Structure formats: C-alpha cells, structure tokens
Amino acid sequence: MKKLMPAPQTGLHGTVTVPGDKSISHRAVMLGSISTGTTVINHFLFSEDCLSTVKAFQNLGVEIDLTEDQVVVHGVGFKGLKKPQNYLQMGNSGTTTRLIMGLLSGQDFTTQLIGDDSLSRRPMKRVSEPLSLMGANIQTTSGHLPVSIMGQDLHAIKYQMTVASAQVKSAIILAASQADGPSEIKELLPTRNHTETMLNAFGGQIKTSDDQLTIQVTPKPKLSGITLTVPGDISSAAFFIAAALLVPNSEVRLQKVGINDTRSGILKVLQRMGAQIALDHQNYEGEPFADMVIKTSELSATDIQRDEIPSLVDELPIIALVCARAKGISTISGAQELRVKETDRIAAIVQEFQKLGIQIVERPDGFTITGSNNWQPVETHLDSHGDHRIGMTLAVAGLLTNQSLTLSGEESVSISYPNFFDDLASLL
Ligand code: S3P
User: Hey, what domains does the chain have and what are their CATH numbers?
Assistant: First the structure.
C-alpha cells in the first residue's frame, strides 16, 4: 500500500526522460531474434512486460545480453529458433503473447504459452482464428491461455480485420512473413504501425496504403540485424503531461518522446481541450520523436469517438482524469476494447473515480464525465486493480486533492514503468 503525495503549491517543475517505448522494445527483441547478425537496442524499456519477451526468446535459443540501458540480441534467423525445454511464461504481457503466436505458428516445433491470472482472462481467439485461416494449428483453452502452437507451413492470406488491434495485425504480419506468398491485411482503423516500420528497417518488405488501412506483406526469408534507439514511450509520458496540465503553476519538459501519428492521438485531444504542449527538437531515427514542454492550462470538455480510439487507447485512463478537471461534460465512446485490457478499465476507472467524488457515468463502450475543480472524495483508499495504467492514473489523481489518499496494487506500475514513482517525485 502506498501513500499518495499531494502536489506542492508551487506546481510540478523539472525534466524527465521517460523510459523507452514498450511496443517498440518488444518488437525490437522479436525482430532482432529472427534476423541474422547482431541487433543493438538502445534505451530499451527494462520493465516486467518487455523482460517477458526477452526471457521467451532466450528460451527459444536466442542469446540476448542485457546491460544497463542496452540490449544486444544475437539473431538466429527465422529458421534458427529452437523448441523450448518447457512452456513459455508470458507473465502479464498481451503484446508478447499475441505477437509470439503469429511468429511461432510458422515454426517446425510445438510451444505452450501460459500467463498470469489477468492475461489468462484476455481473449486469444482474435489471434488464433485469423492464423488458423493461414493453416496454423493453435489450441486455446476456451479462447484463452494456456495456448499450444503446433508449428505448420503457412499459406498467404487476404484478411479483413474484425477488431482494431495492432497486436492482432502484428501477429498476422509475423505469420505472413513466413507464408508461401504475399498477403494482404485490411484494418478497420489504422492502429500503431511499429511492426511494419521496424520490419522494413530489418530488410523486410511491407507496404502500407496511403490511407494506412491496407498492409501488404511479402515474405522475406532473410532479415538482418540493426542498431536502433527506442524513443520515450508516449503512453508513459502521458501521466506527466496530464499532471503538468492539471497541477497549478507547473512547467515540465519531457525528453525524446515518440510522436508517431498512430500513437499520438492524446496530443490532438489535449490540444483541442486547450492544453499548452509545445514540441521542441523534433527528430527522426526510425520513429519520430520530440521534446515536450507542458504548462498548466485551462481545459474545456471534449468528445472522443471510435475513430480516434486506436491512436490513444492506452492513454484513455489518464485522459479520463483530465476530462474530470476540464470545464463541461466530456464523453468517450467506441472504447469497448478497454474492457479486455489488463483489467476491465471502464469498470475500474468508474469505480475508482467515484471514490474521488468525480461525476462519471459508465457506458458499455466508454463513459460520460462532468468536469470539476472541486472533487469531494468519499473514500480515500484507491486500488490499481493490478493494472499499471490505472495505478499511475490514480497517482496523478492523488496530486489533485488535499485529502491524504492511499493506493494498493501500486507495484503493478513495474509492468511498463518501474521508476514511475521516483520520476514523479523528482517533479514535486
Ligand atoms: C499494443 C497494442 C494495443 C495496446 C497495447 C500494446 C502493441 O493493444 O493497447 O498496450 O504493442 O501492439 P491492442 O492490439 O489489443 O489494441
């Protein structure tokens, strides 16, 4: 149980370099493993989820060296992975699980995947079904983990996605990269495109249409290792962006944060609410990134609908908190995917925000929030529901009330941001 800190009258000040992007860190280890030669990953995210990916590939016979801020992967090529001695432990990581299902479905051995309680409740048929259309032989446990993957020769596919999910898309891309011909994937809405961008950097052949909705994958038997620097994770930066906007008298600088269009919906939404966020030193190294300077701002309510959701899906808990301070009534809809994240994030947000005295109404696919600067907490003990992003959202909420609040399940922040509480304290 952690005592949450209220914000000082003088506001939040300072500079934080947020840790490396989680989605990009996972993919760098995976693609490095199936390439030939060495891949050097700078500013890797050493969090529990990404370490689940590292351990999985070590168990698949890949030599991976970890130093303080760098990971070196000694790639074995698509055909060099080895049958693991035991099941692979996915921990809490949906990204590891779903991407590895795509990758291992085309190998010539059988693998079993297991995960923690939260991951074992999350849907896996959304991945096994399209893969089975390619000839994959995957057995789930009623659509969940544990999952067995009996590697097969895979056929090319033309597939219309039924869910807006980068994890599902990436699983199909990784399977299609091993198939007998070119494949085409059509998305419902554009989702994060790190797999496509990075595969091309490793020498793959992926083409995306101008509207970002159609992806063509031509199998390339040989990928080659690269050196890359992972940009800061905008999903982690989001907590400090919100804190700086909402705590009076604040000015915070965040360094080298990824601003890929498919991920930066939060910036668009906050800017239309009136947020002062300036981008400085914009640059590109495989992915675009920039420094962000955020100042306390007067914010007004907004509506966020289905089309915007994929570009900010992981930021919705903290965006909901910003809406709870903005003038007017905000609605978030088309976000039913939140119900199948690490916890049911719609239910968890509603439950915890109501403790804080926030006016929030649950909808099947989101919520309606009436903003106020004057919450009256009715309960002072908050719970992360074992979900890192709910935990960090509540820690930011703690800055905004004078009542002393406690948070249980605070250790879940290590899934994506092990130093979160220290970095937050450095701004207080
Ligand atoms: C991720 C995709 C998203 C996101 C998750 C990471 C990825 O999940 O919520 O945190 O790295 O591909 P979905 O694919 O389920 O939308």
Answer: 2-20+231-425 (3.65.10.10), 22-229 (3.65.10.10)
